[in-house]
Amino acid sequence: MQTIPRAYLLNRLLTLFLTVFIAATLIWIIPRLSPVDPAEIMLGRMAAGAGAVADSEAILAQLRQNFGLDDPLFVQYLKYLWNTVTFNFGLSTATFPTPVSVLIAQALPWTLGLMILSLIITFFIGNLLGALMVWEKSPKFVRVAIPAAMVFTSIPPILSGLLLMWIFAAKLRWFPLTGAYGLTVEPGWSWDFAVSVMHHGFLPALSIVIVTFGFWALGMRGLMITVQGEDYVTLAKAKGLRPRYILYKYMIRNAILPQITAFALKVGLLIAGQVLVERIFAFNGMGKLLYDAILDQDFPVIQGVSFVIILMTALSVFIVDLIYPFIDPRIRHEVAS
Amino acid sequence: MSDMPLTRAERKRQRRIRRFDNPWLNPKLFWGAGLLLTIIAVGILGRLFWDPELVFVGSGIPKMPPPGFENLRGQSGTFANPLGTEGSGRDMLALIIIGAPNSLYVGLMASLIGMSVGIFLGFTSGFMGGRTDDVIRVLSDVMITIPPLLILVVFQSAFGDVTLTMMALLIAGFVWQSPTRLIRAQVLSMKQSGYVQMARLSGASTWHIMFKEMLPNLVPYLFGSFIANVTTSIVTAVGLEVLGLGPQRIPTLGRTIYEAINAGALIQNLWWWWGIPTLLLAVMFIGLLLINLGLDEVSNPRLRKLKL
């Protein structure tokens, strides 16, 4: 077991810190460059709800004070950074006065669940198929069928989601059209609820799986081509080991490891794609929360969701970078690339 | 090559061999480029042969199906709207003639800008080394982790409407990192190679070494990275449009899908409304994938032997 060199750890930590810091700063600066005033939007919503609002100037001033818009910009910025670090994103303006962090805490488990599930499935399917594409003992149809299926993997999951929704939910009615669980079941640790969740989650997961497995398969294919020519594979064949044994124990095991780093590059796109899938399926995750917030011009929620998703991405990359050398002892933690 | 004059048959044969030996004549590259050019051609020729004014709201009866199909109201489609109409009476054919090139435009534009920035930063980083290199490397490492969609969502919800070019510029801010990293890595390894040392010893300027000696070797990689970025840019643009952001007054494929979902087109079986833009985008992405696979084979001869 090796230990992580301090310089490497510091380097990765610095990158993680900078990513989060830059993202948070961008999220803070952008709305402030805009001519739109959040207090006026809030007032507009009140006016739309009540017909007319008396003392609108006084309310505007009060709202600005509540939002902290009266402070100097630098103070606002520091306050914002502190609040962000403590996951205090303020109050949602659309569902006032629910704290944004509460909304996010409700949505996050759904998003994480869907993401981890579909990721595990695609990782296994994709790598296996990629390996089979190169393996000389694969049946002929595998070598023809997989590349044909791979063509669809260039498509973003939202398009496959629409197609699956239409076929399996609107036409065949095998699966529900929207939502993360049925309207009639009570959320809780019950059997009915679990079944309902799985029933609702199937299509969103499938639409992510069928368009992402090709990414892994393609990478695996490239790695397998390299492994195929290695001496130890030739030796294993010469020893008369069973081809299947060679495939699993000699080829895939050696080829699969660099695939884990590929995840680090892809994770951002994966998460962004999933946000859109959640939006079209009205799946109760971060995507739906974000979409609803956009509709309502609910800035605190938009900022909070964006920040949390970027944080998730940065953390996954950080974790992959750290654990990868433990999985593959051939790689050492390099300080600079 | 001998100086002996060749017979006509020999010359012909040689030309043929040379032609088939050219890695750029790759079938995948050819098909991918063909698909994209078809979409561009539809956009250009369509404007000549079909009335682009039909893209305006209320130019036809809403929710008309393509000819040969019936909608829920029992109306059957006519050739006045060969691909049907959407929920507010826009003609679908006119919509894709105007909308499809818009998506490609955003993708190409964003990727082109990203690529130029990437080439510049990559060379700078690889050649200068030291502090400059550190800053560029860390910055590209950091920016590659931030998903563009989220920052753009914040931007657009704060600023409201944007133009296509503005959206392309915004996306370009997130696609310069991978070319930068790619070029930096290549420049670092090429700096040590014989021909670059040779050029340096012969007194070639840095400029000459960068653009005449190194850049030609990078072309297949650059193309690959360019195409990958076009895909990322279009995915991001469509993502924004499907969330209801993006340009509000210009017809785009993503916005059409957005309106279709919101109007419940799936449950009303208005498949042409969401299906046609979806299909078109799918064709676009498949074309880009084929080009990318073809370029992979161009730059990595080992892959050529394997059939994909």
Report on this model:
- The complex is a heterodimer of chains A (337) and B (308).
- Chain A is mainly α.
- Helix content of chain A is 74%, strand content 0%.
- The radius of gyration of chain A is 25 Å and the shape is globular.
- Chain A starts with 5 loop residues before the first helix and ends in a 10-residue tail after the last helix.
- Chain B has 308 residues and is an all-alpha fold.
- Chain B is 68% helix and 0% strand.
- Chain B is flat.
- Classes of the chains: A mainly alpha (337), B mainly alpha (308).
- Chains A and B meet through helix 1, helix 6, helix 7, helix 8 and helix 11 of A and helix 4, helix 5, helix 9 and helix 11 of B.
Notable traits:
heterodimer, A: 337 residues, 0% strand, B: 11 helices
Quick structural overview:
The complex is a heterodimer of chains A (337) and B (308). Chain A is mainly α. Helices cover 74% and strands 0% of the residues of chain A.
SSE topology:
The complex is a heterodimer of chains A (337) and B (308).
Chain A lengths: L5 H28 L4 H13 L5 H12 L5 H13 L14 H35 L5 H11 L6 H15 L19 H38 L2 H8 L4 H13 L1 H25 L4 H11 L2 H29 L10
Chain B lengths: L7 H14 L5 H23 L42 H37 L1 H16 L2 H12 L4 H9 L4 H15 L2 H8 L4 H37 L10 H10 L8 H29 L9
Count the DSSP helices of chain A: 13
Question: Residue ranges of chain A: pLDDT <50 for 5 or more in a row?
Answer: none
Which structural category fits the helices and strands of chain B? mainly alpha
Shape of chain A: globular
Q: How widely separated are the two ends of chain B? A: 36 Å
Q: Report the major sheet of chain A.
A: none
Radius of gyration of chain B: 24 Å
Beta-strand fraction estimate of chain B: under 5%
Helix-residue proportion of chain A = over 70%
Task: Write the element-wise H/E pattern of chain B from the N-terminal end onward.
Answer: HHHHHHHHHHH
Rounded mean pLDDT score of chain A: 81
Give the largest interface pair and sizes: A-B, 66 and 52 residues
Average per-residue pLDDT of chain B, rounded, comes to 83
Helix content of chain B: 55-70%
Beta-sheet strand percentage of chain A?
Answer: under 5%
Number of helices of chain B: 11
Using only C-alpha atoms, the radius of gyration of chain A works out to 25 Å
| End-to-end C-alpha gap of chain A | 23 Å
Low-confidence regions of chain B: none
> Pairing-aware structural class of the strands and helices of chain A?
mainly alpha
Total strands of chain A:
0
